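Figure-free illustration: sequence to structure, shown twice.
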Amino acid sequence: MNTLEGRLRSARHQGRKLLAPYVTGGISDDWTRYLAAYQDAGADAVEIGLPFSDPMLDGGTIQEASDRALARGASADRILAELAEVDLTVPRVVMTYTNLVVRQGVETFCGKLRDAGVSGLIVPDLPLGESGELEGAAAASGVDLVLLAAPSTSPERLREIGERSRGFVYAVSLMGTTGERDQLAESGLALARALKAVTDRPVLLGFGVSRPAHAVQACRTGDGVVVASALMRRVIDGAGPAEVGADVDAMRTELDRSADEPTGSP
């Protein structure tokens, strides 16, 4: 039950809506304090982005955050070393791109994740057909490789993703990049429903979850949400760990309130 998937399954079994907030590693001297603030605010897992010079699935906000971190000298090794020093009880999930993984070799990279206390890995640009080697290396290091599904994914591929993903299944809400949005895409809600029909693994919806109301809406079909760009916009604009943690706390409060509502409540 100490694996990422075990922890999320246990929380879901208790009726909890899952919340995984994100921070770009190395964006500031005190970036790890955001992780502690997220944990204190009720996060079920924390996601750490390793900044990359060509983040193809990230919108303007995460790109700006990555650029800032890289300009400060952030690197995958430095971020993981700093992460290893953080005292957290919630699971740590790293998001990165294939280039950073294969540059070090998949076994070496996964070993460094393990040593940093990481229990989950997301590599959004890794094709499913080419993920076998990383799946094996991650499993050998005790790291759950989280796979992504998109609204365009075929029913057959959805079933395969549900079977092969570990930790949770990441439901991408729309065909596009990450970013803050005024409304949660209906395509994401439909995708979450389709995934729930073919897998018992937790399904977390991401891309565009920007407000507490979005999180509540997403959790009516899925098991939880990943929140990234909305929080990173606050960080870029100067909000400190306590302020961004308050945003996560507001989302946690609304999720808990919705979970307590009787079925059929408006």
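We now fold a second protein in the same way, so the two outputs can be compared directly.
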Amino acid sequence: MRILVTNDDGINAPGLRVLEAIAQEIAGADGEVWVVAPAFEQSGVAHCISYTRPMMVSELAPRRWAAEGSPADCVLAAVHDIMKQSPPDLVLSGVNRGNNSAENALYSGTLGGAMEAALQGLRAIALSQYFGPAMRDLDDPFEAAAAHGAETVRRLLDRAPWHGEDYRLFYNVNFPPVAAADVLGLKVAPQGFRRDMGFGVEPVISPSGRRFLWITGAPQQQPTHPGTDAAVNLDGYISVTPMRADLTAHDILEELTAIE
């Protein structure tokens, strides 16, 4: 198997090394693991592409490339240039430093890379490591992902549907904020929503008198509705959420015919 690995935390991120090890285990001795990742951190860029400017790509080592662009850019660079003669069988994006459960999924560059792979007709999985107080004393905050990542990917490859001709399915995986030994299992869960949460801004004045705005986040330890992704993560379970890039609100299409 030929696997492409990308992320949004950048080519030197510790989570990328974890994902490379997972990918190598899945690919096996006869497989290939290719890395095409952003040269610099691209957290929060979602499915952004560098449509109005070119991006530089640099080969750092055999099968290892850095691109001055977003995770979606990295997938495009791999599929249509770097790996053009031998496209990947699977795209893995992550392991993100922090969860991409609930509304975080909408902003995530990690998911943006997986989404672009799905739009390119490839099997794709985004993987993220939830952080929390129970991990404070761990030597490796990614140990849950490292210990359970390969088995989770295998389950999806062997048992999950991958259909879809237009907006193909891809999967969002979040590992819980606990030690590897404390992971209770895996649960399929819909995307949740953290109420009374979300991003905001905090104004600051620089020493030169200029006004800047920092984007602010929110506490991540508030569970979503029972059975949804962040809730099961905080209960100690790996969440698996099937996703598509189709943004249509299918549940109200029939109701909306009244305006025709």
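Summary for the second example: The helical segments are 14-27, 71-82, 104-107, 109-119, 143-159, 229-234, 253-256.
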